[in-house]
Each structure stands twice: as C-alpha cells, then as structure tokens.
TrEMBL record:
<dbReference type="InterPro" id="IPR050288">
    <property type="entry name" value="Cellulose_deg_GH3"/>
</dbReference>
<dbReference type="InterPro" id="IPR036962">
    <property type="entry name" value="Glyco_hydro_3_N_sf"/>
</dbReference>
<comment type="similarity">
    <text>Belongs to the glycosyl hydrolase 3 family.</text>
</comment>
<dbReference type="Pfam" id="PF00933">
    <property type="entry name" value="Glyco_hydro_3"/>
</dbReference>
<dbReference type="InterPro" id="IPR013783">
    <property type="entry name" value="Ig-like_fold"/>
</dbReference>
<keyword id="KW-0378">Hydrolase</keyword>
<dbReference type="InterPro" id="IPR017853">
    <property type="entry name" value="GH"/>
</dbReference>
<dbReference type="InterPro" id="IPR036881">
    <property type="entry name" value="Glyco_hydro_3_C_sf"/>
</dbReference>
<dbReference type="Pfam" id="PF01915">
    <property type="entry name" value="Glyco_hydro_3_C"/>
</dbReference>
<feature type="domain" description="Fibronectin type III-like">
    <location>
        <begin position="681"/>
        <end position="748"/>
    </location>
</feature>
<dbReference type="InterPro" id="IPR001764">
    <property type="entry name" value="Glyco_hydro_3_N"/>
</dbReference>
<dbReference type="Pfam" id="PF14310">
    <property type="entry name" value="Fn3-like"/>
</dbReference>
<dbReference type="GO" id="GO:0016787">
    <property type="term" value="F:hydrolase activity"/>
</dbReference>
<dbReference type="InterPro" id="IPR026891">
    <property type="entry name" value="Fn3-like"/>
</dbReference>
<dbReference type="InterPro" id="IPR002772">
    <property type="entry name" value="Glyco_hydro_3_C"/>
</dbReference>
<protein>
    <submittedName>
        <fullName>Glycoside hydrolase family 3 C-terminal domain-containing protein</fullName>
    </submittedName>
</protein>
Length: 781
C-alpha cells in the first residue's frame, strides 16, 4: 500500500503543469547560478535541443562534416552526438578532427554556443578504431580485481578525452541468472555484491574524481533488464537494485540509463514507480536519467501524435534525455505550448543536462574539448593492462596434470575455429563488433593489433617444439543463430553472418594432425555472431558441429586441452570427461592470445574465478548460488577456479558478539601457498543467517586477491558492517539480532573455514544503509 500511495503522489506531481522554477541539487551553488543564467537566455527550442542527440552520419556528406547539414539538422544546437566513434571508420586523429569541427560549429554558429557531449560505448574500452580492446566485462568480473578494473577505466577515460568524448554508456550492472540471455557477456555475472564492487570500480576509474578531466559514467540498465524487474520488492531492493545503489551513492554515478523493457508492468523509460519512487525518492538520485537507444519510440507508433504522447509520458515521468535522436522529444516545444508537458519537469531536465556539461568543463571559458597533436589510443601501458586483465580473467575449470605443458610435449596440434582468428577475442560493443555488424565496415586486426592464439603460441614455443595448425571445423551452422528485434532499433538492419575464415577447413586433416601429436589444443566456442545484443542461439552447447569435432579429437587418445572462447558459459557435460584440461577464456581482448598461451605454457598461473554459475545442462532455469542449494544442473559453482598451486586456510577469527548498532567488526584468517609455484588466491567471504532472519541462505560479503610465493603466508582481514546483514521489509532496512555464520573459502561451495557471530541488542531499522561494501587488507605473517 505504501508503494501505491507514493506512486499516486508522484504521478500527480509529474503530470500537472506547474509554473514555479525547478528545484534540484545536481550542482553546487556556483554551477546552479551558471546554469540558471544560461537557461534564462535560451529559447524553448534551444532548451529542447539539449534533451536529445543525433548520430554523426546525420551531419556528414561523403565521410566529412557538412556545415550545410549541421544548419539543417541542428540549428539550435544539440545535447549529444551519439555513438560517434564506433559508427565511423576514422583513426584517432581523424576522429578528433571530426569532433573539433563539429564543436566549432556548435560554439560559433548556434545561438547559445553550447558544445555537445560526445558519448560512446566503453564496456571493453573506448569503442573507437585503434583504441585498446580490454576483455569483455564478464571476463573482467572473473578477475575479482577491482584495482585493475579501475586502472582499465582510467585509461579508457584518457583515450576518450583525447578525441573529445566525455560520456561512456557503461558500465552494465544487470544481474544475470541464466547463460541463455544473449547479453550475459556484458554483465559482471549473477552476484549483487561482486557486480556492485566491479561496477563501482568502473565508475570511479572512468570519472576519476574530477569530471573536468574524467568521463561521465552511465550505469545501466535501470532496472532489471537482465531479469528481475517483476520480482518481489524485497529481492529487487536487496539484489537487483544493489549494484546501482553502490554506483550512485558510493561511486558517484550521475547518469543512469533505463532499459527497453518494463518495470512492474510499466515501460521502464516512462515508469513513475521506477524513476521517482525508486530512483529519486529512495536512492535520492539527482542526476540524469537517459533512455536506451530508441526506447522512448518503442512505446509509440510512428505517427506524430503517438510520438508526442510518448514524449510527454517519458519526460513527465522523469526520463531526461532521449537517445539516440529526438524523434519524440523534438515535439517538446509544441507540447509545452499546449500545456501537455510539465514545465517544471522540462526545466529540471534541461538544467540537469546543462549542469553535466558544466561539471565536465565543456562550458569553461577556455574549455579543453580535445587533445592536440598525434594521438595514440593503444599505448604500451594500455596493452599491459589489457594483458593482465586477460590473464586474470581466464578460468581453469579442469586440469588432470597436463597443464602447464612440459618439455615432453614436442608436437602440439592446435585446431578449431577459434585457433587462428581475432574474432574470438572480441565481445559485443567493441569497435570491431559494432562497426562490422551495425555498419557493415571492414575490420583491420592490426589497428590495434589483436593477437590470436596461433600467433602467440608460434612466438612463445621453443624452437624444438613443432606446432601444427588445422582449423578443422566451422564456428556454426547457418540455421543455429538468428536475429531478434529485442533492444537496439538498428537490429532490423543487421544481417546475420557466420564470419567465414580465410583458412582451409579440413575436418579429417585436423583429426589426423591431432592423432600424430603429443597434445591437442582445441580452441572452440563462440564469436560475436553467436553472442551479443540481438543475436539469439538455439542453445548454449558448443555451437555447430564443434562438440562432434571435439569427440573425434578425444577419440584419438591424445590428451586434449579444451580452450573455450565466448560470451557465456557453454554446456560441455558430454565432453568434459574426455578432456585433460578445460580453460574458459571468454572474450579476452587484444592480448587474449598471449594470455591464454602463457597460461598453457606455465608462464602465468591461472587465478580467475567464476562470476557466474556454470551450467551442466541447457535447462533455462533461473539460478544463483545464493539460493542456497547446489543444483544438479550446475557443473562448476560461483567463485570456482583452479590454480597450478594449492592454498591452505587457517585460524579464522570472528567476534563472538557484535552489537546490532556497531559500525564495523573484523574477520580474519591465514592463507598459505602450499604448492611449488607462485600464485594468486581469491579469498571469498560469505555470510549465512543461523536464526530466522529473512536473508538468502548464503551471500557474498567480501573478497580479496592474495598473491603468495611458494610457502608464503598472509593474514587476511575483512572489515565488515552489521548493515551488510540488513534485510528489506516494509520500506525499511532491518538488522535483526541473532546468530550469523561467516564463511571463508575458495568458492561458494568450497568453504574452508567458518565461525558464528551473535548480533546482540535491539532490532535496528534504517531508511538507508550507509555501509554497502566491506574492506580488506593483507599483512605478512
């Protein structure tokens, strides 16, 4: 009933036309004055123009900026230039020059002289030609390395700022509970805590603490696009919303993107409940809410009257900006004159849009809108970070001792459709994927250099080792994948292709090569045609005839190392037993070939741990480890991953009693490397209620990466808050007295230590929790 009442109040407020000035706290007093002064000088057409964007092609002729088209298309200026880099076949300097010329038009030829925000995808780095390609986000989550993830987005921000981009349409913090969803690769997996920690690191890195030098993040999709938008409120607040809450309240994200989907049976882009009750009232968000591309138009028909109705509904509900164009919002001046659009809401949206430009430094007197000189968007340091992330993202699922390869392996067979290609290194929303699929462009794998597994092994193997390569089989079958119209409106222009290889595909020859080898490396799995937005596969086993091909390789009797690339876990239940080792490499980016090769050869000890439960079957059940029961359908649990060494946990210390009103308490343990190789263990802290609290049976509450030399020990300390054990009920957070069991382990099902703590004192009720994540530290012992 409380939500119904709040919804009714918000609805009345947002649909009635008010004349008073908008009141918002997005800026400091200095910013507010600058924005108010600018707003008062603008015509209604100029104001409305700040609330939508255009694509770069709309103001170009023959690949160049056209001032004539600028004057026709954006005479009053424009808020954003949308996906300007991935849509254009321009190198770094050319791209910067395009930005320079368009900004000069906006500053010098439009009435208010307001520069645009150039925004772009940045989930795997800046999606621009020649820019560093980092591992896809699902793989980054498997590193459990927030520091390196933060470094990655700091580098991304530098590249974006160099050419003049000031907003990233990232990160995606949707929780994913099934590998069947085509966009699982863009997520950080299934767990709210891990997703929140990684998403927060992304935002902190790309914004850099000073938006005049950094890039504005845009967390998405708000809310429950990956699943969960119709769950009970308790689960929505405790899990689905949590990564967004951390990104907004802790990391300072000032832009969120709603989804194409619905929330509680309302279109998300025009949901009073979502945009007001949840976002503004609960999260106290004072930033910008932007639509996913075309989402405003998705709730309307193509006729003008329908477009006007949806523009009214979206803006009045709280959606500030329409992307990628103003197909609906271009009618706002007319709708204002007719009294259909809430004037206060319109003023608020425009001022928020202007305030972000002030915060980004775009309206400074000597604004630095881009870098001069020759630009390098793929520096050695960037590549080093990409390599480290790729190494740490690879998860070793199985190893019977074959890895790392020894000197006995003198003849190596490298086979499979992903053995000698750059495509398996790239996820969706890289420049290459976007340019190829959405715009039909040609891809140069040397700009930047994308290292294949074949290239890496050829370079790294000793001279006395023979590497024989045969492709063997195709990626897929022509009828296995299809295009769906979910999501991006450009989907209708996407023609599915299977990306034919220039290499000869000879099945029998590949099997013969395998038979004559000491060991077989089978590089299989997906490529971006088979996983990504708007791409739908019939199942999630190895695609095409790859499983049949793998069975024949196993039948040779030679040890087979299966290396799987792709954007999701793939079911291998029928072939796993026959494999000597299994590596899950995801989409590892430009340095993926080197990373995988170094793990196979033992130059790097694998440390990746699963950020998503790995399915054993193709059942489309929703599953998360925190349901509390290990499913018969799960092959490898959340948090799982093998190493070339072993680790021993000991000496857990948990307070016997903690008061419910205490701020924090400490949990400690010892971890020792008991093997013969240096390695990194990811220590995971879980909590389980022992009494009757309304919490999930097991929940991740902290983690840390511990680098250990052979025989070395470290003391691990977690600083935890009772607030992290609060549950949501009756529109409040409640900390319940009682017994809580804290567990330390190598995965959600490999618990090494546990101890119980009793929360004493009164029940605590809170409107908001102030401590959302734990902290950790390490000391030598």
């Amino acid at each position: 009933m409380l939500y119904c009442a709040l919804f009714a109040q918000v609805f009345v407020c947002c649909t009635s036309v008010k004349q008073k000035s908008a009141n918002f706290t997005f800026q400091t007093s200095n910013i507010r004055k600058e924005v108010n002064d600018l707003y008062n000088k603008m015509s209604v057409e100029e104001r409305a123009a700040q609330l939508y964007g255009i694509r770069p092609q709309e103001v170009m002729t023959d690949g160049k900026l056209s001032l004539k088209k600028c004057k026709e298309k954006i005479p009053y200026g424009v808020g954003h230039i949308c996906q300007f880099a991935c849509a254009l076949d321009l190198g770094p300097n050319e791209l910067r020059d395009f930005v320079r010329d368009l900004q000069e038009y906006l500053v010098n030829e439009t009435p208010s002289g307001i520069p645009a925000i150039f925004h772009e995808e940045a989930i795997t780095g800046f999606a621009a030609k020649g820019s560093t390609i980092y591992p896809q986000q699902l793989g980054v989550a498997c590193t459990w390395n927030t520091d390196l993830a933060r470094e990655k987005t700091q580098q991304t921000a530098r590249s974006m700022r160099a050419v003049g981009a000031t907003m990233a349409l990232s990160p995606m913090v949707d929780l994913i509970r099934t590998a069947h969803w085509s966009r699982v690769e863009e997520s950080y997996g299934e767990d709210p805590y891990l997703t929140a920690a990684m998403g927060s690191a992304f935002v902190e890195g790309i914004q850099g603490g000073d938006l005049r030098k950094g890039v504005a993040a845009c967390t998405k999709h708000f809310l429950g696009y990956g699943g969960g938008s119709k769950l009970p409120w308790k689960e929505i607040y405790e899990e689905i919303l949590f990564p967004h809450e951390v990104a907004i309240r802790q990391a300072g994200s000032k832009t969120i993107m709603t989804s194409y989907g619905s929330f509680k049976n309302e279109p998300a882009v025009a949901s009073e409940t979502l945009l007001n009750v949840v976002l503004k009232d609960y999260l106290q968000f004072d930033g910008l809410a932007v639509s996913d591309y075309g989402a405003v138009g998705y709730i309307s028909q193509s006729d003008p009257e329908s477009l006007k109705k949806t523009a009214t509904a979206a803006l009045n509900a709280g959606n500030d900006l329409e992307f990628p164009s103003g197909s609906n919002y271009k009618y706002l001046p007319e709708l204002l004159r007719k009294g259909l659009v809430n004037e206060t809401r319109f003023e608020e949206a425009v001022k928020k849009a202007l305030a972000l430009k002030v915060r980004l430094g775009l309206l400074d007197k000597k604004a630095k809108l881009y870098e001069t000189g020759n630009l390098n968007l793929d520096t050695p340091r960037d590549r080093e970070t990409a390599y480290k992330l790729a190494c740490q993202s690879v998860v070793m699922l199985k190893n019977n001792g074959i890895l790392p390869l020894t000197e006995k392996s003198k003849k190596i067979a490298l086979v499979g459709p992903n053995a000698n290609t750059f495509w398996c290194m790239l996820g969706d929303y890289t420049y290459q994927s976007m340019q190829f699929f959405w715009w039909g462009g040609k891809i140069d794998p040397n700009e930047p250099k994308i290292v294949s597994l074949h290239e890496a092994l050829t370079d790294k193997l000793d001279a006395d080792v023979t590497l024989n390569y045969e492709r063997g089989c195709d990626w897929s079958e022509s009828n296995e994948a299809s295009v769906i119209r979910e999501g991006d409106p450009r989907t209708k222009r996407l023609k599915m292709m299977l990306m034919e290889s220039a290499d000869v595909t000879d099945w029998k020859k590949a099997v013969k090569v395998a038979s004559g080898s000491d060991v077989v490396i089978a590089a299989l799995g997906e490529n971006p045609t088979l996983c990504g937005e708007a791409r739908n596969r019939k199942g999630i086993r190895l695609p095409g005839e790859q499983e049949k091909f793998l069975k024949e390789l196993i039948a040779t009797g030679k040890p087979v190392v299966l290396v799987m690339f792709g954007g999701r876990p793939q079911v291998i239940d029928e072939v796993e037993k026959g494999c000597a080792a299994v590596l899950q490499a995801w989409y590892p980016g430009e340095e993926g070939g080197n990373a995988v090769a170094d793990i196979i050869l033992g130059n790097v000890n694998p440390s990746g741990k699963l950020s998503i439960s790995y399915p054993k079957t193709e059942k489309q059940e929703q599953y998360c480890y925190n349901y509390g029961v290990t499913s018969d359908n799960i092959a490898y649990p959340f948090g799982y991953g093998l190493s070339y060494t072993s680790y021993e946990y000991s000496n857990i210390s948990v307070p016997a009693h903690v008061r419910t009103k205490d701020i924090t308490f400490e949990i400690t343990c010892m971890v020792k490397n008991t093997g013969s190789m240096a390695g990194t263990e990811i220590v995971q802290l879980y909590a389980s209620p022992k009494s009757g609290q309304a919490l999930k049976p097991i929940q991740l509450k902290g983690f840390t990466r511990v680098e250990l030399k052979p025989g070395e020990s470290k003391k691990i300390s977690f600083t935890v808050s009772p607030q992290q054990m609060a549950y949501f009920a009756g529109h409040q957070w409640i900390i319940e007295p009682g017994d809580y069991e804290f567990k330390l382990g190598a995965s959600s099902s490999d618990i090494r230590l546990k101890s119980t703590c009793r929360f004493i004192g009164d029940r605590v009720n809170m409107d908001l929790r102030n401590i959302l994540l734990s902290a950790s530290r390490q000391t030598f012992k």
